[in-house]
Structure formats: structure tokens, C-alpha cells
């Protein structure tokens, strides 16, 4: 069995694995094994089950990294997997058992509100896309989700966004892996999606090693060097 760590990157809502591109390039340049599987974005139950199965195909130690809603997914998928040596949360939810994303952001002052959604019904549910334009209290895509991103790049991100299923906001998290696996948390102090105060509370509760950067919600795009540094710190600490 390989003893070399594999770094697994899990994206969040309204994104895909390409949101990790700048981080992946830096990690690969240091010689690390990196994979960024798709997050189904159907809800914590289905998404964690899929990731859990994916992780079981990787031999050897794993450093598991999540952005945003991906924090729900890794917190549940990592539970009971002895290969996972570290959890790294980037502008992410770090839920405890019984918590839902809707409840966590509902009183946090998040810029993501119902007025910001473009709902698309389909057979079996409703998908939620983020609007580009402001629709108060939603301040618009640039000021909410993509603050700090160059407008031309933000337009591409908006055009290629993957939707979040309504289930994501109502399904509750299970027993958290961070209770037994060491964790790291990078907090963008200008994050309007998961406000810093909420990230601080969740990170402290999890006993995470916390790093703060002056950035919005998409530090994996706007501050990839800082994100890479944190991931490598977790890799080095758990060799």
C-alpha cells in the first residue's frame, strides 16, 4: 500500500472542480498527488455517500480539502475512514451533528438569500442558481459570491455555475469527522457567503488550526497561494 498522501479537493455550490485549478497547479508543482472529484450538489446525504465511495478507491493516506458547502460533504464522508489524516476547510461550513446549512446561514447575515436564487424545477426537485443582478436583500453576484474576483472572470464563473439542490439547505449533518481527525480552517475575513463570525465559531468548535486572509468567499481563486500553503501545512503535519 502507498504511504504517499493523496490530496482530495472538494468544491462547493455554484462551482465545479475547475475552481481549484490554480491550487492544483501549485500542489502538482510541489510533486503532490492531487484529485478533484465532482461534488454532486444534491444534498449532504447523497453527496457524502458518493464521496465516501470515491475515497475508498484511494489507497494510502488522504488529506481531504473542502470549499464552502463542500465542508458538509467532507465532514460526513470522512467519518470512519482511517486513511483520512487531515481535514482542511477553505471558506467552508464545519457542521456539527444535527445542523443544516439553512439553519447555519439563516441568522448569520449571509448575502445568500432566497431573493438571490433563480429556481429551476425538475422532475424530483428544484435546482437553485445564483442571479447575476441584485435583487434586495441579495446584493448581486459580484458583491455576494464573487467579491474580490475580477468582473470578467466572475462573469465566466456565473455562466458556468452548477446549481445547488434545495435539499442542501434542509438535510442535517451526521456525526462529524472533525471530532477524531485534525482539522485546518482558512477564513476569508471579507466572506459574505459564510460570514467570518460563523466560520470562526465553527472552526473554534472543531479545534481547527485557523488562518485568516483578507479576501472574500473564493480564496481558492483569489488567494490560491495562501490556500496551497494551508493545505501543505496539513500535509506536513500529518505525514
What is the gist of this entry?
This protein is α/β, with parallel strands linked by helices and 239 residues long. It has helices spanning 21-29, 44-55, 70-77, 101-106, 151-159, 196-205, 219-222, 224-237, and strands at residues 6-10, 33-35, 62-67, 84-90, 117-122, 125-130, 164-165, 183-188, 209-213. It is globular and about 50 Å long.
Notable traits:
2 domains, alpha/beta, Rossmann fold, single chain, 8 helices, six-stranded parallel beta sheet, 19% strand, 239 residues, 30% helix, three-stranded antiparallel beta sheet
> In CATH, what is the homologous superfamily of the largest domain?
Alpha/Beta hydrolase fold, catalytic domain
**What summary fits the major beta sheet?**
6 strands, parallel
Give the beta-strand count.
9
Taken from the alpha-carbon principal axes, the silhouette is globular
Class per helix and strand makeup: alpha/beta
Work out the helix count. Answer: 8
CATH class membership of the largest domain: Alpha Beta
| CATH-defined fold name of the largest domain | Rossmann fold
Distance between the termini: 15 Å
Q: In what range is the share of β-strand residues?
A: 15-25%
Radius of gyration: 16 Å
Label the CATH architecture of the largest domain: 3-Layer(aba) Sandwich
Strand arrangement within the widest β-sheet reads 2-1-3-4-8-9
- Runs with pLDDT <50, length 5+? none
What percentage of residues falls in helices of 4 or more residues?
25-40%
Q: What's the structural domain tally? A: 2
> Helix and strand succession?
EHEHEHEHEEHEEHEHH
Mean pLDDT over all positions? 97
Amino acid at each position: 500500500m502507498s504511504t504517499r498522501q493523496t490530496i482530495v479537493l472538494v468544491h462547493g455550490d455554484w462551482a465545479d472542480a475547475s475552481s481549484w485549478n490554480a491550487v492544483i497547479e501549485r500542489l502538482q508543482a510541489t510533486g503532490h498527488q492531487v484529485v478533484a472529484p465532482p461534488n454532486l450538489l444534491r444534498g449532504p446525504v447523497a453527496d457524502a455517500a458518493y464521496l465516501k465511495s470515491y475515497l475508498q478507491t484511494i489507497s494510502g493516506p488522504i488529506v481531504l480539502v473542502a470549499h464552502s458547502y463542500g465542508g458538509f460533504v467532507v465532514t460526513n464522508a470522512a467519518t470512519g475512514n482511517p486513511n483520512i489524516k487531515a481535514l482542511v476547510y477553505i471558506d467552508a461550513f464545519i457542521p456539527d451533528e444535527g445542523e443544516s446549512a439553512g439553519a447555519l446561514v439563516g441568522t448569520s447575515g449571509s448575502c445568500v438569500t432566497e431573493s438571490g436564487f433563480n429556481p429551476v424545477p425538475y422532475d424530483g426537485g428544484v435546482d437553485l442558481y445564483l442571479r447575476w443582478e441584485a435583487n434586495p436583500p441579495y446584493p448581486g453576484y459580484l458583491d455576494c459570491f464573487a467579491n474580490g474576483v475580477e468582473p470578467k472572470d466572475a462573469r465566466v464563473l456565473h455562466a458556468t455555475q452548477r446549481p445547488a439542490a434545495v435539499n442542501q439547505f434542509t438535510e442535517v449533518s451526521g456525526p462529524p469527522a472533525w471530532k477524531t481527525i485534525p482539522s485546518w480552517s482558512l477564513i476569508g475575513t471579507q466572506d459574505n457567503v459564510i460570514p467570518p463570525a460563523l466560520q470562526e465559531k465553527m472552526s473554534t468548535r472543531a479545534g481547527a488550526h485557523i488562518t485568516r486572509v483578507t479576501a472574500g468567499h473564493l480564496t481558492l481563486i483569489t488567494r490560491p497561494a495562501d490556500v496551497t500553503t494551508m493545505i501543505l501545512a496539513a500535509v506536513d503535519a500529518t505525514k
